[in-house]
C-alpha cells in the first residue's frame, strides 16, 4: 500500500525510509511488554501524540515502514512480495478516567488495556509474526475514535487507498468475531423560554426538553431496545438547564436500514419550540459471515480447540465509519471483553491476548490466498 501524501516523520521517532527486516518476530515477552507500555502512556481523545510516536517507533523496530500522518494517525506497513493489501485498524485514544497500570495474576490492568490498546498491540505483533503472509500488511492506529466525529477513521477513509480487506481492532474476545454494529444518531435539543413564575401554566424550558425525550421514546416505539440488533435503542445522555434554558443530549442506536431523516422530521414536528441538532449520524453495518476475513479468523480459532462466536454489537466502532465507503471484506477482532470498556475494572487477560496474536497471525497467512480465490473469475 502506498502511503498517503500527508504521511510525515515525527521528530520524536526515526523510522527508516525503506522497509527494514526485523531481527526476529516478537516473542510473548516482547508482546506483553509492548502492550504494557502502550497502556502506561495516557492517550485520552485529542491527546494521542505521545502514544502515536511510541507506536511508530515500536513498529519501526519490528520492521515496519512507519510514520504519523497529518491527522495524527500512526501507520506502519510490512511488504512481503506480491499480493493484496490487508489493513488492520485500531484506535489510540481512550475514554474514562485514568487508571493505574499494573500486571497482577496474569492480567494487565489499566485504561485502554481492553478498549483498545490490547487489540492494537495484538495486531502489531501478529503482522510482524506473519512471515508467510503474502502481500502488504498495514497497521493503523487512529485518533479520536471515542469522539462523535471519529476524525482519525474518517481521514483514513478519505485519504488512504482502499485495501483488499480490513480487520478492526476492538475487544471481541479471542475466540469470537464481531460481524456488525448498530449505527448511531447523536442529537441535542436546546430550548429557551421567557422567565416566569413556576406556577404559570406556560411550558417551561425544562419541561419542553423532557417532552422531547419522551417524543423520542414514543417515535421509536415499544419494541425499542439496546438488547436487540434489529431494533433502535435510545439513551438520555445528559440533561442541563432550568425553566428559561434547557438542553438534552440523546443518543439513538440504530439498526440496519433505519430512517434517521424520518425520525428527525417527526421530532421537529413534535418539538417546534427548540433547536434540534444532529451531532453525528453513522449507519449500522454488518459483514457477511462467509466473507474471507471472517473465515480466515474462524479457522485458527477452531485450530485452537474453540468454537468461534459470531457477534453483533449494539455499540459502534470505526467499522461503521469505514464501511460507509469501503465495500470490502471486513470484520472486527481483538482480545478482551467489551463489558470492561470504559469501566473502573478495565483489564486484559494476558493469556487471551497472546492467543489473539496467534489467531491474527494465522489469519493473515490464510487471508491472501482466500482473497485471491474470492476475486478469481468463475
Strands, helices and their partners?
Layout: H1 28-40, H2 49-61, E1 65-68, E2 74-80, E3 85-91, E4 102-104, E5 107-109, H3 117-129, E6 135-142, H4 151-159, E7 165-168, E8 176-181, E9 183-192, H5 205-220, E10 233-241, E11 245-254, H6 260-270, E12 274-282, E13 285-286, H7 292-303, E14 309-313, H8 318-323, E15 330-332, E16 347-349, H9 350-375
Parallel strand pairs: 3-6, 3-7, 7-15, 8-14
Antiparallel strand pairs: 1-2, 2-6, 4-5, 5-16, 8-13, 9-11, 9-12, 10-11
Helix pairs in contact: 1-3, 3-9, 5-6, 7-9
Major sheet description = 6 strands, mixed
SSE succession = HHEEEEEHEHEEEHEEHEEHEHEEH
Distance between the termini: 27 Å
In helices, the fraction of residues equals: 25-40%
Query: How large is the radius of gyration?
Result: 22 Å
Number of E-type strands: 16
CATH class bucket of the largest domain: Alpha Beta
Overall tally of structural domains: 2
- The average pLDDT is 93
Global geometry: elongated
Amino acid at each position: 500500500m502506498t502511503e498517503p501524501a500527508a504521511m510525515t516523520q515525527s521528530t520524536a521517532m526515526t523510522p527508516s525510509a525503506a522497509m527494514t527486516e526485523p531481527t526476529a518476530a516478537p516473542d510473548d515477552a516482547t508482546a506483553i511488554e509492548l502492550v504494557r507500555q502502550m497502556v502506561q502512556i495516557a492517550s485520552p481523545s485529542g491527546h494521542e501524540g505521545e502514544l502515536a510516536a511510541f507506536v511508530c517507533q515500536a513498529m519501526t523496530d519490528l520492521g515496519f515502514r512507519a510514520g504519523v500522518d497529518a491527522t495524527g494517525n500512526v501507520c506502519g506497513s510490512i511488504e512481503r512480495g506480491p499480493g493484496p493489501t490487508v489493513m488492520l485498524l485500531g484506535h489510540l485514544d481512550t475514554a474514562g478516567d485514568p487508571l493505574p497500570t499494573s500486571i497482577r495474576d496474569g492480567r494487565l490492568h489499566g485504561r485502554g488495556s481492553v478498549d483498545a490498546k490490547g487489540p492494537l498491540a495484538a495486531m502489531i505483533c501478529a503482522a510482524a509474526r506473519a512471515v508467510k503472509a503474502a502481500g502488504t500488511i498495514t497497521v493503523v492506529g487512529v485518533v479520536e475514535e471515542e469522539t462523535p466525529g471519529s476524525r482519525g477513521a474518517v481521514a483514513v477513509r478519505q485519504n488512504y487507498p482502499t485495501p483488499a480487506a480490513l480487520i478492526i481492532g476492538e475487544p471481541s474476545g479471542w475466540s469470537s468475531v464481531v460481524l456488525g454494529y448498530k449505527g448511531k444518531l447523536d442529537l441535542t435539543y436546546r430550548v429557551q423560554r421567557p422567565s416566569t413564575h413556576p406556577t404559570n401554566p406556560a411550558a417551561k424550558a425544562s419541561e419542553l426538553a423532557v417532552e422531547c425525550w419522551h417524543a423520542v421514546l414514543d417515535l421509536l416505539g415499544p419494541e425499542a431496545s439496546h438488547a436487540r440488533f434489529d431494533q433502535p435503542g435510545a439513551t438520555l445522555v445528559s440533561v442541563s438547564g432550568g425553566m428559561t434554558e434547557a438542553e438534552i443530549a440523546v443518543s439513538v442506536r440504530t439498526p440496519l436500514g433505519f430512517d434517521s431523516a424520518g425520525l428527525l422530521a417527526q421530532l421537529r414536528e413534535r418539538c417546534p419550540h427548540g433547536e434540534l441538532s444532529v451531532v453525528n449520524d453513522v449507519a449500522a453495518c454488518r459483514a457477511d459471515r462467509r466473507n474471507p476475513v471472517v473465515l480466515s479468523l474462524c479457522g485458527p480459532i477452531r485450530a485452537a480447540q474453540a468454537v468461534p462466536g459470531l457477534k453483533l454489537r449494539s455499540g459502534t466502532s470505526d467499522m461503521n465509519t469505514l464501511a460507509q465507503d469501503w465495500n470490502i471484506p471486513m470484520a472486527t477482532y481483538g482480545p478482551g471483553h467489551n463489558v470492561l470498556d470504559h469501566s473502573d475494572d478495565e483489564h486484559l487477560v494476558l493469556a487471551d491476548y497472546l492467543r489473539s496474536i496467534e489467531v491474527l497471525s494465522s489469519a493473515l497467512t490464510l487471508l491472501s490466498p482466500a482473497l485471491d480465490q474470492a476475486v478469481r473469475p468463475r
